[in-house]
Amino acid sequence: MKKKTSILRGQKGVSFIELLIVMTLVVIVLVMNTDTFGVIFRQSRQQTQAVGAQMDRIVGLEILRTDLEHAGFGLPWSFQGSINYSEASNSPQSTYNDATSNPPRAFVSGNDLSTFTLNNSDYLVIKSTIVGTSEASQRWTYITGDTAPQPHSWGPNNVLENGDRVTVIWPRSVTGFNKELIMDGTSFSTIYSSSAFPVEFSPAAATTRFVIYGVSPSTTNLQRPFNRADYYIQQPASMPQACAPNTGILYKATINHDANGTLNPDPLIDCVADMQVIYRLDTNNDGTIDSTVNDISGLTAQQIRDRVKEVRVYILSHEGQKDGAFKFASSTITVGEFGVGRTFNLSSTIGSGWENYRWKVSTLVVKPRNLAS
User: Nearest-CA neighbor of 67 among 252, 218, 213?
Assistant: First the structure.
């Protein structure tokens, strides 16, 4: 009988040294994979924060773009009688108030402010009925003759509601004025009613049309016949952790319709270092832009309507958090164009670590739609 041969015969066991080598290799592979996962995780986190910042910036910029395009919407160009209204009461907001004897200016701005705004950035004021944040401020309609106001053609969500506080403008009055504010004595606003609109704010002739603009939904008495939004950069007590030092938040602040004209700020964009505003003008009314300036404080409301053809806003901010593996190319960055604006020094203003942020200048180029007649 043949003997069975063991399958283990002639095989050698694994030595202790070989086992140590295998275990060492396994540990090395695990460590390498751990580092790889760490890098992937950090990159994923950076990209996620960058995408979030981009989305916030897009939303904030679109709000600003809409307000710029509609600057002057619903503003009176002349007054039917003597008027007394108020805007902001505190400084520097009060610097951009208009005299109540003059029509309101669609744009007002402050250039490189040394106080209130962060890093000597600009201050921008936009006046119109539509810059308000209430639903009423987004609505308008018209009334012809002594009939009731017409329903708005944009759908039920845009129809003025009974109780909305409104102003009424006569586009072309018999006195020769354009966009004249209708008044009842010294009252420049009234309460909207779809069935019994006040006769004092209704046209007498069947061929005459008045435009009705919503301003506020519940204010007992408007402080001004328009809404106003102020844009500026400030640093709140608590900033998002991802933001670089000496950056702030771009705010849109509406001026409340109360006796004090206080600010009602809403944050739009985080991690903002600078905002610059420039205006492109047609100074001789020949249809061609011939001047670019950062200050129109000396222009009247009519001159602004006649000359301002384009508004450009430049916002310097960064995407995502600090990234030690990233190096920004230059310590200075231009915020503006056409020789107007400023050169922003990242190194001296932001300080240590400035180069580890992804800086970007977002540019809005807007042609206002509601300045000309």
Answer: 252
